[in-house]
Amino acid sequence: MIRPPLKNKTLFVAIVLLLVPFDASSARQEKVSVEVQAMLDRISADSMRGHLSFLASDLLEGRFTPSRGLDTAALYIAAQFRRAGLEPAGDDGYFQTANWFVSQPDLNALDFKIRHEGQTIAIRPDRISFQFETGLDLDSIAAFKVDYADAATLAALSPDSLAGKAVLTEIPDFRREERSRWGEMMRAQTEFLSRMSAAKVAVVLSVDRRSSAGAGAGPVRLIDPESRPPARTVVGVPMITIHDAAVASLFDKLKPGQTAAELKLKLPPPVETKVKIRNVIGLLRGSDPALKDTYVLVTAHYDHIGVRPSMEGDNIFNGANDDGSGTVSVIEIATALSSMKVKPKRSIVFVTFFGEERGLLGSRFYGRHPVFQIEKTVADINLEQVGRTDSTEGPQVANASMTGFDFSDVGIIFKTAGELTGITVYKHERNSDAYFGRSDNQALADQGVPAHTLCTAFDYPDYHGVGDHWEKIDYENMARVDRMVVLGLTMIANNPEAPKWNEANPKAARYLSAWKLHHPASTVTQQ
C-alpha cells in the first residue's frame, strides 16, 4: 500500500518547504507560503477564457491532425510559451517536428457517371463520401436496386443476381439517430455489407438525400515513416455514399432489382504527400544545480476531430473541453511558474501534443524521440477535460480525478496538494484504472515514467460533439484545479526523491518493468 501523506519523510519535507507554521490541532489552518500563494494567484480564469475563445473558435476548424487549424494553434501556443519566458526546446524553436506523409486520392481525377435512358448524371467529388483506400476502375457496370429497409426482399436476394453489379441502396446514417440505436444500426449495416461482399458485388452506392455535401475520402491517412504499415486493400465490398439530389431522384424512379442504369467509376488510388506535424515544447529551467537536470512534464493534447462536411448547420467540432481546457491550462501554469523569483528545483517541461485523437500520435512520437532523457524524467502530469463541471455523473465542482491513482505515489502527492487548495483529488472507482491508457500519459508510462492524467469530468454533454464550445467551460473552477496542479508540480519538483511506481499494484507491473530498465539501481514504493 502507498504510504499516506506526512508519513513519507521526503514528501513531508517537500510540503513543509511550501507551508508557513500552522496549528497542528486544525489541519484547515495549513497555508502555503506567501510567495507560492502569489504565484498560485496568477492563475487567471479570465486569461484562460481569452486563450480558449481563440483556440476553440470556428476559425481553427476543430484542430484536426493535420490541418491549417492545428498549425495555427501550434503557433499560438508557441507564442504564449515565448511570452511566459520558457526556453524553446524543440528542433525548430518551440516545435518538435514529425516529418510524416498523408495519403489521399486525387479526387480532381474522379470520373463518376450514372447513365439511364439517355440521361447521364456526372457526380462531383464534393458529393461523395467513402473510406476505402484503393482505386477503382469500373465501366459499364449494371446497377441493381436494393430496398435496404425490406428485410424479406434482402433475405431473398441470390448472390448470382448481384455478382459484379453496382448495388444502389439507401443505408441510413446511424449518427443522425438516437445513440441508443447506434449499435443496432451498425450491426445491420455490417451484416448487409458482408452479404454484398459474399455475393461479389463490385461496389455499393448508398443514397443520402439529407445532405448535399460529401466528405470525400474522409480523414487523410497519416503515415509515420518509422512504422509504415503495409499497403491497404479493400476489405469486403467498397461502399460510396452519394449526396446528390439528381441521383436520389433517379433512385426513386427505379424499381427494385435489375435496372437499365449503368455505372462508370474511375477513382485513382491514393497518393502520398509530405506533411509536418508538431509538438510544442517549452522549458522552465530548474534552480537547483543538480536537480535542474531532471524533469517534470506537464502535458495536454491540442488537437481535436475537425469538421464533418456532410453535416448541416454547425459541423465544427471545436473541442473546447477536449482538450482545449488542458492546453490553456498548460499555458497558464507555465505563465504562473515562470513568475517565481526562485524557480522550482527540477526543470519543468511544458508539452502540447498533436494527434491524440488519432491514437496518441504526438505523445508516442515524443516517447520514441524524447527531447529530455527518459531516465531523467521523473513524472508526467497530463491534463485532459479539466474545464467542464457538468459531468453526466453530476456536478464536479472542486473535484479532480487522477487515472491510475494508485499505480504510483503521484496520486497521493496530488491528493495532498488538493487538501491544501480545496480540491478533492480522488480515485474514480470505475474509470480511474480503465481510462489510464486513453490519453497521452500512456505513451510516457510505456517508457517507465510515472505518468497520469488528471481530469474533472470523464463524460459530459457534447463529448466529441459540435456543442463543446468555449462558453460552456467553468473557468473559475478550472483556475482552482490548476492552482492545485501547480502546487502538486512544485511538490514533485522540489523533492529530492522522485515519484515511484507502486510495486504492490499488479496493474503497474508493466510500467515498473519499463522504469527499471532506465533505473536499475533504484528502489520502488513498497506495500
Q: Nutshell version of this structure?
A:
It contains 14 helices and 20 strands. With 527 residues, it is of the alpha/beta class.
Ranges where pLDDT stays below 50 over 5 or more residues in a row are 1-17, 19-29
Tally of discrete structural domains? 2
What is the mean pLDDT? 91
Text of the CATH class of the largest domain: Alpha Beta
- Tell me the strand percentage band: 15-25%
- Helicity level, as a percent range? 25-40%
Helix-strand makeup class: alpha/beta
**The CATH homology group name of the largest domain:** Zn peptidases
**Which fold name corresponds to the CATH topology of the largest domain?**
Aminopeptidase
The major sheet is characterized as: 10 strands, mixed
How many DSSP E strands?
A: 20
How far apart are the termini? 4 Å
Mind telling me which CATH architecture of the largest domain this is?
3-Layer(aba) Sandwich
Please give the count of helices. 14
Radius of gyration: 27 Å
Shape: elongated
What does this structure look like?
This protein has 527 residues and is of the alpha/beta class. The chain folds into 2 domains: 38-102 and 274-501, Aminopeptidase (3-Layer(aba) Sandwich), CATH 3.40.630; 107-267, Glucose Oxidase, domain 1. Helix content is 30%, strand content 22%. It has helices at 9-16, 34-40, 45-55, 68-84, 151-156, 159-162, 179-198, 245-253, 320-338, 361-368, 410-421, 441-445, 475-494, 509-518, and strands at residues 87-88, 95-105, 111-116, 119-122, 128-130, 136-145, 166-169, 203-207, 221-223, 239-242, 257-267, 270-284, 295-301, 347-353, 377-383, 390-391, 394-395, 399-402, 424-426, 451-455. The strands form 3 sheets. Strands 1, 2, 9, 12, 13, 14, 15, 18, 19 and 20 form a 10-stranded mixed β-sheet that branches. Strand 13 (295-301), helix 9 and strand 14 form a beta-alpha-beta unit. Helix 3 packs across helix 13 (475-494), helix 9 (320-338) crosses helix 13 (475-494) and helix 11 (410-421) crosses helix 13.
